[in-house]
Amino acid sequence: MFRKNYQIILIVLALNFMGLISLYSSLHQGGEFTGRVIFLKQILWIVLGWVLAIFISFINYRVFFDLSIWLYFISLFLLVVVAILGKIQMGAQRWLELGGLTFQPSEFAKLAGLLILSRFLNEKGREVSFLKGFFKEIIIPFFPLAFLFIAIFIQPDLGTSLILIFLFLFMLIGAGIEKKKILLFLLIIAIFLPGGWSFLRDYQKERLLVFINPNSDPLGAGYTIIQSKIAIGSGRLLGKGFLSGTQNQLNFIPARHTDFIFTVFAEEWGFLGCILLLFLYYLLLKIILDIANNLQDRFSYLICIGIFSLFFIHLFINISMVMGLLPVVGLPLLFFSYGGTYTIINFILIGILLNIIKTHSQTL
Amino acid sequence: MFLKRVKIIGFSLIVGGLIYYQLIKGDYFFNKSTSNYIRLIPQPALRGLILDRKGKVLVKNSLEFEVCVFLKKPDVNLLEKLGRLLGTSSEVLEKNFKRNFIASFIPTPVFQTADRERILKLEEKNLPQVSIRLNPKRYVKPSYSISHIVGFVRKISKKDIFLKKYGYDFREEIGYAGLELFYDNYLRGKPGGLQIEIDARGRINRILGKKKPTSGKTLSLSLDIDIQNIAYQSLKGFRGSLVLMESSSGKILAMASRPSFNVNLFRESRDYFNRITKSRDRVLINRAIQGVYPLGSVFKTVVGLAGLEERKISKNSKFLCEGVFKFKDREFKCWTSHGWQDIVGGFLHSCNIFFYNTGLRLGSKIIEKYAYLLGLGRPTGIDLPFEKEGFVPSPEKIKRLGKQWYPGDTLNLSIGQGYLLATPLQVAVVLNFFASRGWLIQPYLVEKIGDLNISLKKREFLGLNLANIELINKGLREAVRNKEGTAHILEDLNLEIAGKTGTAQVRGRKSHAWFAGFFPYKEPKYVIVVILENAGSSTNACKVAYNFLSQLKEKKLL
């Protein structure tokens, strides 16, 4: 069914357009366009992304079943490299420089993690024994993911490592694993959680504490969240208009072209703009989920569930975080935030999705 | 489907959040965002000028450099460097820093100077934590002769924070004395401001609105600066005061007080200010309105008038002066034995015996009543702050002070000695009563505020018998015209002066010398009062008056 293909393409194009408008605005400061290079780069990433998506849509998604192992090891290798060679940015080692371009292996790890999980969860267990089943259906698929998780967590990139955990949980649910087993898994995680606290860097602990009471440190870590709330709220019903968001234009919000780009959009386009944006996101997720549920092939089904999960988790955590409903963990907003690797990865996922739709067009 | 439910719940949460922030609390956050980026920078208004009656500028605003630093704490190295460049000590700068500090992102003024050379040198150094501002500065010229009258301004300090309620801004200049204080409301003008847009770092982005400051109103005085300067010069070598007032209107033409100070130095040197305020000569006192002195014989005008009004004496009453007046067991002396004296003779010779008798017939209560009626013991109401009201004694008042009133005190009061105290300006008001033949006036300095003439001042006709007043006036005129008169040297001036000398005894020190008079006798235009502290004989006061008036005559200022 080609109609779903076009729907997805149209929605992503619309999101690209709104994202670029917000990025353009966020790169203004006091009425001056200060980020021309960043803006042009993002356009380049989007064009490149589309080319890649179209290209991948012609490659049968099943190759990723075999490729997933390779991609996984490449990803793990890159994460190890970034840990050793990575350029220090924002207090964490997340970036690799390749001939002037920076590359973020942790974003790539999301793709690799998604594919390796789809492969490992592909075989539906027929194990009768609870413990054996738990081991086969949860621990074994978790094993490769755990390495990625640790490599990202020690960077430290709390947001992305959490994404992997959520992705795993969502895909377990999608794969139809017994709820009892998932609960047992969560229980084990909860036991390890207090130990994890000591692995957090000070600024991460601070962010978590500030989340509980942002006014405890209004000029420090709480500053961002207070200012971003003001930005979103001050947009009111209709917004302040394009390029007219004072919180944005006067530099009150840090990282507003990346993680906090939603505040720029919300301030300038108001509640109505936000509802339109959320509607587009909702529609995209609904289409992906519908496709997944109509697929007979378990591997493609799991990929679709993975894509749905990644998209949903990102936008839910990002928007909740800028509204102060969740702690600031540093995640980009789907098709909005500036960032080469993240944009490209999302387009690769769209490409795979398009191919799945094409391959199964008879049954869909 | 579980994932579908998760999706719906997630989106509902976000939409709920948006409804709460953007719709329910939208206005609240909108106001927050506005106050985030809009700031008001006050722009001080220039204070009004003060002019003399010919329009000469007495107080103006000149420019001054203010050196400010951006520091959290005083930085010894920087302050020492600044001290060297500015020619002051780092301790002074540190003191100023501590006094003026508000916050580290607001420049803290540490030094003010008008010295262009030093400022240029400082600017060459281009120190990052130092900024230089141009400020208007009050400048008084000629400072010594009018310092007491115009007073001075000071920045509102932390101590005066209560003034905020009255619309004064922190660090605004406010009058602390003299006309600057009395007319502060008119002189200060309305500060304007810039409404600016700032970014997150507090840097100015653009100007949103501008309100021009309105300068304060100009004060035009009745004072004549040329006369004032001569008055001040005439007092040279004495502590005292000289007042020249236009008769019947109450316009002050000159009001000098000595010793004086240079009010312009207050700003630059805190030491000078401290020295002046702690001086034993009480330099800061405007002696014309804040110096209180026993009146001596000048008070005889009041006692004589009271005697005539109350019919205790008449034109023809005579008393025998044998140099001594015996009362109870005590002897009260006169200068010499004047023989039989009538009231004119009493003034001419300033005979104590005549007034002892008169005072005794009147009694202290009646004397008090007339003294108060003619303006003693209460402020004259001149437009200057902190005027002293003096003291007119009565047995009751003395008793309230815990002392006893002896009958002899009434005799002392009759010749203006003892408890009686008055300011030179009050004496001018009393003399003007005689000069204007019965009017009590309220002296004033300011004729115009801006273009508005406010000189329509209070005058009150007391309704006393004109014949009685003329009789006193005749005595006053004789005191100058007659060769035997106590103020005869003034007759040389051909100004037809009428007046009374006074020698007010001060226990343990030399007497205060008074001369108070008016001229020309028939249709008086001026009232003059001179007091010299501890100058001994009243002749000295007459000499000062003589010098003063002869110079005015010479320069055709009368």
Please tell me what the overall shape of chain A is: globular
The oligomerization state is heterodimer
Cα-to-Cα separation, first versus last residue of chain B: 110 Å
Major sheet details of chain B:
7 strands, mixed
Radius of gyration of chain A: 20 Å
DSSP summary, beta strand count of chain B: 23
Q: Mind telling me the CATH class of the largest domain in chain B?
A: Alpha Beta
**By helix and strand content of chain B, what is the structural category?**
alpha+beta
> How many structural domains in the coordinates of chain B?
2
Explain what the structure shows.
The complex is a heterodimer of chains A (364) and B (558). With 364 residues, chain A is mainly alpha-helical. Helix content of chain A is 70%, strand content 5%. Chain A has one domain (2-359). Chain A has 13 helices and five strands. Chain A is globular, with a radius of gyration of 20 Å. Chain B is elongated, with a radius of gyration of 32 Å. The model of chain B has no long low-confidence stretch (mean pLDDT 89). Chain B is α+β, with helices and mostly antiparallel strands and 558 residues long. Chain B contains 21 helices and 23 strands. The A-B interface holds A 29-30, 170, 173-174, 227, 229-237, 246-247, 250-253, 266-267, 270-271, 274-275, 278, 281-282, 285-286, 289, 293, 305, 308-309, 312, 316, 319-320, 323, 325 and B 1-4, 6-7, 10-11, 13-15, 17-19, 21-23, 25-30, 32-34, 36-37, 197-201, 205-206.
